[in-house]
Amino acid sequence: MKLRVHDRAPNQKSLAKIFSLLIGFTFLLSFSALQAQEVTPEHIAKMKSVSGSVISDDGSHIAYTVSVPADPYEENAGNSNHLYVLDVAEGTTKPYYTSGSVASVQFRPNHNSISFLASRDGDNGRALYELPLDGGEAVQLFGFERNIVSYTWHNDGNHVAFTAFNAAEESDSPLPYTADVYEENQTNRKAYITNVTVEDHEPHQLNVDGSIYMVEWSPDGSKLAVSAAPTPEVDDFYMKQQVFIVDYRTRDIIAEVNNEGKLGEFKWSPNGEQLALRTAYDINDPTDGRLKIVSAEGGTPENIDEGFEGKYEQIEWTSNNEIHFLASQGTNTMLGTIRPNGANKSVLFNADAHAISSFSRSSDGMISFVASSPSHPNEVYTLSRARNAQPQKATDHNPWLEEVELGNQEVVRYTARDGEFEIEGMLMYPVGYEDGTRVPVITVVHGGPEAHYSNGWQTGYSSPGQMATAKGYAVFYPNYRGSTGRGVEFAYSSQGDLAGKEFDDVVDGVDYLIDQGIADEDRIGVTGGSYGGYASAWMSTYYSDRFAASVMFVGISNNLSKWGTSDIPNELYLVHSRERMWESDAKWMDYLKRSPIYWVDRAETPTLIMHGAEDTRVHPAQSLELYRHLKVRKPDVPVRLVWYPGEGHGNSRSASKFDYNYRMLEWFDTYLMTGDASAEMPHWDAPIPTRD
User: Fold this and answer.
1) Which distant-in-sequence residues (6+ apart) come within 8 Å of 507 by Cβ?
2) How crowded is the C-beta side of 206, counted as CA atoms within 13 Å?
3) Are the CB atoms for 409 and 455 separated by under 8 Å?
4) How far is 143 from 162, CA to CA, in rounded Å?
5) Cα maximum dimension of the chain
């Protein structure tokens, strides 16, 4: 992997900063004794994480997938998903398929087997495979002429509905190359039905226009619910998916659901009379976190939990009169039940120290769920149907965590400066922290802004977390206004106010940590990706006097050019800006003033900028603009720009993640730990050690 790095040497070191430099070295030395016990980039590069689980109908087995990273010293490749099976009664787990990557693991109805998607030699992309539950060799059940994107079983265990993209139209140009015509010749994703028990069965296509994303069989197998958008463009995927009911025999649409806005999932009631949808409150809702019910004969979905100050994350019917759910509320997650009329809502398990990402339920009420905690990444848990049962951790795929020391993590709350909201977040203390000691703080701002941090594992290649606590930093994760998990009003509260009160909330959190005697006000850092990268750029320009170092990742620097270069212009308008910049000269100017490049004259913060060279969500030009403005207008401020070839909106490959991790930590060690903005800029090459 070759990177393109652009930087500028800083000015001469200032004698006035020597005292801060010595303080920084003191911190580095005080934590050097913990070197053998610290969390390092090498740990994160090999960290495994459970990515999903599904429990058998009788509750005896749990099939789950483990995300396994490639060795960054060997190849720049993405993670592989390996299949494991847990015997619930024995509490033992075994690898079932580790020779390749699997997806969409399911128990095949009426068969003692597990099905999944995988790509093996000779396949046209991913095909459907099956493994006996008692072990054996994976056998292909069905292969299509193109890659299978998703599938779902009919209750007979023989028929399957699946989705695949149409083949792209080939160019007739006589030239020896094919031009890439932007946003044209994109292929729709279509849905098909086939019988895997009939040899050479010809799949039948559903008669639904546009691009199909989700497909669910009705309980009796006579109908399918599908979601479709008018085009395959990302903007339509987010904002224009509609739900249709399709007859199994004719494959024609027989009913339409009048949902609007973002759509997360839908589920049939056991009697097939209703659908539960996890969807947006309305077209302007930035999330798909409301729970709505609609007749299977079509109509307008009804919100059944109007005042819920949280976000529904997953839903599953347990009977015609009960829906099981996973929801987030603030920094907590919870498992619970609710009736389809909104009555009798109850919490089965409130996870204040676990971040639950998904669940699966057997017919007798046994639950498996995937969750992280402040001390470990995602693992499989079980929760029995017994009254007052407590979850049991069933897997452990990172035994190295027993050998390292972690900083304490706690939820913090503070009042925003305008008094309108109490803001929540997480704070990690340095390893061995002593009360009353002021320490450097790295502020990690999430993207979206329609996202939030839960009280679980918060360390990754672009999130310094426990790697930073081992070096003597505190790490702060604020859920500023506009974050999810706090209801509709809170999610809407940042709209039409780009970089306004939302980012003031972040600074207010820093002030809270200073007032609490934890943060050293001269050594506050910031990092984040996407909208968090926007925040990082804003803090290093508009709020530069408050921040000693910044690491900006796939972030926004110019809201005028951002709109014209992103693949989600409609979503940006509907759920973020809520206005069109061209409606008046004043709005053009306001968009510019909400852009970090406008405030570069304030910039004194050393800024490391990193970006995927193939990003379509936030174009790499956004990073280039900030770099160029800083380099020309503020020649004495350290700045560096790093491109990651082949990466998009966030790094997905092992070596580029590893490189990013080391560069981020080195930048903070150079400018934040010391508090010296005039320190010599690190060498352009990443400080990755040679492996023994």
Assistant:
1) 539, 543, 546
2) 34
3) yes
4) 11
5) 81
The two structure tokens encoding residue 32: 């050097």
Distance CA 599, CA 604 (A): 11
Query: DSSP letters of 601-624?
Result: GG--S-EEEEEETT-SSS-THHHH
Pairing of strands 150-153, 159-165: antiparallel
Between CA 222 and CA 230, with CA 226 as vertex, the angle to 5 degrees is 145
* CA-based nearest residue to 551, from 475, 610, 617, 629: 610
Three-class DSSP category at 175: coil
Sequence length of the chain is: 692
Mean pLDDT, range 198-209, rounded to an integer: 95
pLDDT exceeds cutoff 80 at 353: yes
Residue 268: φ, ψ to 5°? -75, 145
Q: How confident is the model at residue 385 (pLDDT cuts 50, 70, 90)?
A: confident
- Confidence check: pLDDT of 534 > 90: yes
Q: What is the mean pLDDT of residues 640-664?
A: 97
Q: Judging by DSSP bridges, how do beta strands 139-142 and 150-153 pair with one another?
A: unpaired
Distance, in Å, from the CA atom of 313 to the CA atom of 333, rounded to the nearest integer, reads 9
Backbone phi, psi, residue 470, to 5°: -70, -20
Backbone angles phi, psi at 113, to 5 degrees: -150, 170
Strand partners, 550: 526, 607
Tokens standing for residue 366:
């046994």
Nearest to 161 by CA among 241, 101, 221, 120: 221
Structure tokens at 342: 């909104």
Place of tokens 């934890």: 518
List, for residues 249-303, the tens digit of each pLDDT value.
Answer: 999 999 999 999 999 999 999 999 999 999 999 999 999 999 999 999 999 999 9
d(CA 495, CA 81): 37
- The C-alpha atoms of residue 91 and residue 330 are separated, in whole angstroms, by 32
Q: Sorting pLDDT into bands at 50, 70 and 90, what band is 691?
A: confident
pLDDT band at 386 (very low <50, low <70, confident <90, very high): confident
| C-alpha to C-alpha distance for 681 and 631, rounded to whole angstroms | 14
* Confidence class for position 376, pLDDT limits 50, 70, 90: very high
